[in-house]
Design goal:
Strand content: under 5%
Radius of gyration: 21 Å
Distance between the termini: 39 Å
Structural class: mainly alpha
Number of strands: 3
Order of helices and strands: HHHHEEHHHHEHHHHHH
Mean pLDDT: 76
Oligomer: single chain
Low-confidence stretches: 250-262
Largest sheet: 3 strands, mixed
Helix content: 55-70%
Number of helices: 14
């Protein structure tokens, strides 16, 4: 059930515009507006067109470029769901259900980082001569150390958890969803072996059709190596107090997150 209607959550479904951007092709920003409008209407065509036109005008106010759309637009959108307290991100209690629907369309890490950028601009931290390490420790680490999913500040739930001494687990995997995580971990650990394995199978064709952006195993390998490098940097900053010497050496290339706690 959709609890509220918005246009911007359908931004990442505009594969045509992102493909043009990726290939450095010229494109009209109005084309992006039109594609998002059509994607939203396709999702629910029972609402009148004028309703979507009003939403489009409201959510695209002061946005006239893709860079503004991806930064200010997404940041403002995330602000309607999120709040900040002592540098920690929380979901507004009244927006919890709508947030669950929102992150089905746009990844939570993208939303929370753009929200932070809007509320705590990093350039201000630099201008105030606050060390980057302090910013990582006091802002980034407390929000992304273990998960990119923020929690809602619901006093009754917090009191319940406090009274029972905490929760044993934060979530439950059903219908084999842990399998996708392990496939991802294996791909990051051995990009060449992974790409060679799927290169001559229908698996890659299926993956390419789902991604709307990957056209070859060479391109996939490049993306996996970039992802691995980004993960290594994140682990070095966020988990540095928990890393053993052996794991610190291993992290230079790849680290399985489950091994941190094994």
């Amino acid at each position: 059930m959709v609890t509220e209607y918005k246009i911007l959550p359908y931004l990442l479904n505009d594969f045509q515009s992102f493909d043009n951007y990726k290939q450095a092709r010229k494109f009209d920003f109005n084309e992006i507006r039109r594609n998002i409008y059509l994607n939203a209407r396709d999702y629910n065509n029972k609402l009148p067109d004028r309703y979507y036109s009003i939403l489009l005008g409201q959510e695209f106010e002061d946005l006239d470029s893709l860079s503004l759309l991806l930064s200010l637009g997404i940041g403002k959108m995330a602000s309607s769901y999120l709040e900040l307290s002592q540098n920690k991100i929380y979901i507004k209690p009244e927006k919890l259900n709508a947030w669950q629907e929102f992150i089905a369309e746009i990844p939570p890490l993208f939303l929370t980082t753009q929200f932070l950028l809007l509320r705590l601009p990093f350039y201000q931290k630099i201008n105030e001569e606050i060390k980057i390490s302090d910013f990582l420790k006091n802002t980034i680490s407390i929000n992304f150390r273990y998960t990119v999913l923020p929690q809602a500040r619901i006093p009754q739930l917090s009191e319940f958890i406090r009274n029972i001494g905490g929760l044993s687990d934060l979530h439950i995997h059903i219908n084999g969803t842990i399998e996708a995580q392990w496939v991802w971990e294996n791909a990051l650990a051995s990009p060449d072996l992974f790409c060679n394995y799927i290169s001559n199978t229908n698996v890659f064709k299926e993956l390419a059709l789902q991604s709307k952006g990957i056209t070859s195993t060479i391109e996939l390998r490049d993306l996996l190596i970039r992802s691995r490098s980004l993960r290594a940097e994140m682990f070095k900053h966020l988990m540095q107090n928990d890393l053993t010497e052996d794991l610190a050496n291993e992290i230079q290339g790849y680290v399985n997150p489950f091994s941190i706690f094994s």
